[in-house]
Amino acid sequence: MRFWKREELTEEERRWRRRQFRTHVIYAMIFLSFTSLLLRAAYVQISNGKAYRQAEVSIPKARIPVLPQRGWIYDANGQILAWDKPALSIVMNRYSTTSDATYRRLASALAPVLHQTPDALYRLMKADSGTIQVTLAKNVSLAQVAYVVEHQSELPGVQVIQDYIREYPYGDLAGQVLGYVGAITAENVSRYQGYLYSQKVGETGIEEQYEPLLQGKPGYELVTINSAGNAIAEAGEIPPQNGDNLQLTLDGHEQACAQMIMQSMIQKVSDKNAIENAAAVMLDVKTGGVIAMVSYPYLDPNWFTLGTLAQHAHYASTSGAQVNNAIAMVNYPGSTVKPANLITAMKAGLVNPQTTIQDDGYIYIGKSRKNEDEGFAFGAVDPVEALTVSSDVFFYQVGLWLGKWFGSSATQGGSWPAEDGSYQHYLNTDLAKGMNALFQGEADFGLGYKTGIDLPYESDGAFYILDSRQGNRQVTYDLKASERSIAKTGEYVNYGSPASLADAAIGQSQMFTPLQLAEYALTLANRGVRVKPHVLQAVYGPNGTPTNGAKPVSTVKPKVEGRVSAADWQWNLVERGMLGVTTTQNGTAYGAFAGAPYQVAGKTGTAQIMLGGKPTDNSVFICYAPADHPQVAVAVMAPGGGYGAQFSAVIARQMLDAYFNEHHAPFMPKRGWTDTSIPANWKTSPAYQIPEQSP
To answer: Which residues on adjacent β-strands are paired with residue 202?
Structure first.
């Protein structure tokens, strides 16, 4: 399928041919402005040919750098997400030996040529001292180029370079995923051996992750110069090697829809300031490819490459938009962990399909009482019903059983096994083993640790335990250290509480990223097969693109990172409970999925958190669909968004609708079908415009 108008395809195809001749054309135009100089040189050649030829070998040559074109970035459908536009720039290399007086002299000489005041140009030359090379002017005219070339000997460190301007044609579409480029600085110059100071390098996102592929290698235009330091003729070219082009797994259409859906939901919240950040991830269940990755607040990479950052400095520095919340935001998952914990309990032989627990709305653990959320009392619940209605009391018991704390109910607090002896010995042995069983069971699904996705700055998750020495405050629980200690000595010293078992079983003693939750949902969909998430799909050579018929140089293959072993009846039981969440009237996300023409296996999560010093809820939802033949897995997290069913589940439903409509799923009404193009209304949507309007 073609995604460009005829003229756009022609322009894309032409760029490859232009590259071969671009430097020659530029200098040809420059030399036209030096007609008299060249005529005089020709006269000298004719009238003094022999002497000239003898001296020719002694004429010095200057190397003018020709930067490579950075590789372009495409979405899964061949739509361009990042490209380079050729331009001429005047730059200055800043040497430590350059005096302040020299800077002022250069500023005075160049100010009228560059249409700036000497003071403004001086400040530009001195600004951002960490950058080795400063750009004085971009997209310069031939007259400005001619002045620099003619006065090169008087302008130490100043040069004309063929540059490129990095542009992101869809603004903040997947802004944090794409990242942006910036100048080489004194702090990072050691990382870029062999680079020119004028080269731009990836600073975040895909631009940073795949810098070696995207960058290419610079070339040079050789120019002969006379004794006065003026260029008089071309002497050859060492052509640059352009960067490779990348195709991502990201679906531009789904990404745009997801960002618009997220923005719309946030705009509908009564207190819009309550949601400071949010994220949503959609993964291909079979390959692990990231179909959409939303990080709110949004960020436009163009601010960093087109020189408009100052207009958005307050927003960029205070909103947190530069963080990719999908991979770096960690928060409590709430009840979304219950399917994993149920698998752990069933594998331990503690729960079977007939297990029934009386949920009276609360339970005592020792002398403390733990309540069902919102005061609900579900009565007798089995494992399927416990997932469907999200019974906390059922899972309190699951956690306590795994930690061998027995006898808790609505009337008594239970106790540890008599054979454990002292309470402290119980904490160091059976309680620690129970915590490990819960947390390791979750880790097997991809929770708590980095997924290894091909994006920089991914965060780990965290596990916690209550510490009686610190007023029962949660402290970090080192799962790996505990497992090593128990394997070696049979104990792991801790000062926890059986209440930690109950909290862990309902997702209040651990923190994960949205991406980890998406990988977890993928693993549930695959019945235990955990596939590594990735963003890169294919690499093309400098002359190849996803739309010109070229074959990729390499492609990314699915990689299985782990497996969770469980019996078919156990997977079936969990799936029945997750289906109940979205398809039965007592399911926690029934309202969000009512009327859906496909079945979804999902789980809501609502974790109590503090935000800005105030108590609120972390809204979380995970799912995969269609439930009978899973294609995609989704995770949504929005601290401050309220109940998982009322915010995050609604976003997930709309993301699924958009995906299935784009792919013309037979169960979706044809009137709603779309195509793979980025929606025509993207640039008029609030999701695109709000960051642009930031102060």
So the answer is: 181
Buried residues in 402-425 as b, exposed as e (16+ CB within 10 A): bbbbeebeeeebbebeeebeeeee
Residue position matching structure tokens 């400095």: 313
Question: What residues does 415 pair with on adjacent strands?
Answer: 406
Spatial CA neighbour of 286 closest among 554, 563, 636, 526: 526
More confident residue, 436 or 312: 436
- Residue 413 has φ and ψ, to the nearest 5°, of -95, -10
The whole-number pLDDT of residue 62 equals 63
pLDDT of residue 45: 47
With H, G, I as helix, E, B as strand and everything else as coil, classify residue 44: helix
Higher pLDDT, 48 or 642: 642
Count how many Cα atoms sit within 13 Å of the Cα of residue 16 in the half-sphere of its side chain. 13
Torsion-angle region of 249 (φ positive above 0: left; ψ -120 to 50: alpha; else: beta): alpha
Whole-prediction pTM: 0.85
Q: Phi-psi bin for 146: left (phi > 0), alpha (psi -120 to 50), beta?
A: alpha
Which distant-in-sequence residues (6+ apart) come within 8 Å of 269 by Cβ? 275, 641, 642, 647
Size of the chain in residues:
695
What pLDDT is stored for residue 4 in this prediction? 38
Helical spans, DSSP H, in 541-589: 568-583
Residue 434 to residues 363, 405, 425, 563: CA-CA distances in angstroms? Answer: 19, 9, 14, 21
Which CA distances in Å does 111 have to 115, 119, 308, 563? 6, 9, 22, 65
CA distances from 154 to 103, 106, 110, 146, 344 (A): 12, 8, 11, 14, 75
Do the Cβ atoms of 228 and 265 come closer than 8 Å?
A: no
Count the neighbouring beta carbons within 10 Å of the beta carbon of residue 11. Answer: 12
Cα dihedral 655, 659, 662, 663, rounded to 10, equals -170
Among 125-129, 226-230, 310-314, the minimum mean pLDDT is found in 226-230
pLDDT of residue 16: 46
SS3 532: coil
Kindly report, residue by residue over 241-290, the tens digit of the pLDDT.
999 999 999 999 999 999 999 999 999 887 767 899 999 999 999 999 99
Q: 21 Cβ partners below 8 Å, 6+ apart?
A: none
What's residue 38's pLDDT?
39
